[in-house]
Amino acid sequence: MRSCRTLFWQSEMLKKKPVQQEARRKPRRRKRRKPRTGSSRTRRIVLLLLTVPLLPLLAVAAFSLPNLLLWPQGIVIHHSALGTPEDDRRADAAVIDALHARRGFGAFFRWRTYHIGYHYVIRRDGTVQAGRPEQCVGAHARGFNDRLGVCLLGNFNDAAPTPAQRKALTALCRRLQRRYRISKNRVSGHRDCTHATECPGRWFPWKTLRQQLE
Ligand SMILES: [Zn+2]
């Protein structure tokens, strides 16, 4: 039979574990991964679902950025002069878009490529058609593409624009002037940007237009 003293000593020894041994054991312990709960998995899936649709948006923004026109600096007026009077009569924004596509005028903006270099087209009956968006840089006058391009269908070296076209052009210019605070001396013709063209033709009624602009 063991004495009471021996039992006491043994119990004391059991309580006191050597400190060194304790320190040696600690690094061996492996951290246990927390088991994935249902809520953390759901959070990951939601995050993924929110991120994936953003990727195309980021790509669109990255490709659109070089063609961004923050604030148009003026207006440049053109005539179409497509060849024959019949060509100009039949043309519209879609025809010019196809024509400019062949010339490689395309610019990616937002969700699509705009080939037409003008921002607006005015048909002979005075219909105003949208070309590329106002916030997309133009492709209509080298060195002046930070201005909005407006093209009137017709060849004004042969004849003046129709009364409907003049009326629509004045209204459009005034609207754009107000929107972007464009003074009337910043409303010019293509030939004011380069000597290489007569656009918008010698019959274009500059005097009347300037009188009507603000
Ligand atoms: Zn022109």
Describe what you observe in this structure.
- The protein is an alpha/beta fold and 214 residues long.
- It has two domains: 30 residues; 145 residues, Peptidoglycan recognition protein-like (Lysozyme-like).
- It has nine helices and seven strands.
- The strands form two sheets. A five-stranded mixed beta sheet has the order 5-4-6-1-7.
- Strand 2 and strand 3 form a beta hairpin.
- The mean pLDDT is 87.
- The structure holds zinc ion (ZN).
- The site of zinc ion (ZN) has 4 residues, from loops.
- The site of zinc ion has 4 residues, from loops.
Features:
single chain, 214 residues, alpha/beta, 2 domains, five-stranded mixed beta sheet, two-stranded antiparallel sheet, elongated, binds zinc ion
Taking pLDDT < 50 over at least 5 consecutive residues as the criterion, the unreliable ranges are none
Biggest sheet: strand arrangement: 5-4-6-1-7
CATH H-level superfamily title of the largest domain: Peptidoglycan recognition protein-like
Average pLDDT level:
87
Number of structurally distinct domains: 2
> How much of the sequence is in beta strands?
5-15%
By CATH reckoning, the class of the largest domain would read Alpha Beta
Count of DSSP H/I helices: 9
Order of helices and strands: HHHHEHHEEEEEHEHH
**Radius of gyration computed on alpha carbons:** 37 Å
Give the name of the CATH architecture of the largest domain: 3-Layer(aba) Sandwich
How many β-strand stretches? 7
Structural class: alpha/beta
**Ends apart, CA distance between termini:** 119 Å
Largest sheet: 5 strands, mixed
Shape: elongated
